[in-house]
Amino acid sequence: MTERFRSGAGRPCLDFVRTLRYRGTPTETEELPDAAAWGAWIDQLGPFSAPVRPAGVADARAAREAIHELLTGSLRPSSRQRLNRFAALPVPAPSLTPSGELRWQAEDPAAAMLALLTRDALELATSREFARVRRCAGPACGALFLDTSRPGTRRWCSMEICGNQAKKSTYRAKATAQG
């Protein structure tokens, strides 16, 4: 499977919030424009072995924005209610196949994925880890990530992308100043 969506933010809810890429910048990009994209996100990052084909994307976007509000300290009462509603949905259930493989199943996989994501966000927001949720220092990024570094001083969501761009910019600025 081709990696279409970014992952590696440290928690599933943080990876999900990243689907509004470059949030708050002039290059803000909606990565969930339709139900097919939402299904592709679930297929790439969710627990299901069979492709998921959601009926729509509105609930996914509403959940994503409510999660973002929760994790950035700007939670409105309507978003809190939305989070609670999504978190109350049934989650996927594990089952063992005859060959001994673990499979995850749900009557409505897209709704079950929203339940997993909102529960993850609620758990994160009420845990000690929440103090280590950071916003990427990349000027064009702004993604949230969980800083799991020992000293807790990580600055970029990805050293390979944002960190590397910052280092290149610093190098160029020094070279220009010296030249």
From TrEMBL:
It comes from the Bacteria. Residues 132-174 form the Zinc finger CGNR domain. InterPro entries: ABATE, ABATE_dom_sf, Znf_CGNR. The lineage of its organism: Bacteria, Bacillati, Actinomycetota, Actinomycetes, Pseudonocardiales. Transmembrane segments: none annotated. This is Zf-CGNR multi-domain protein.
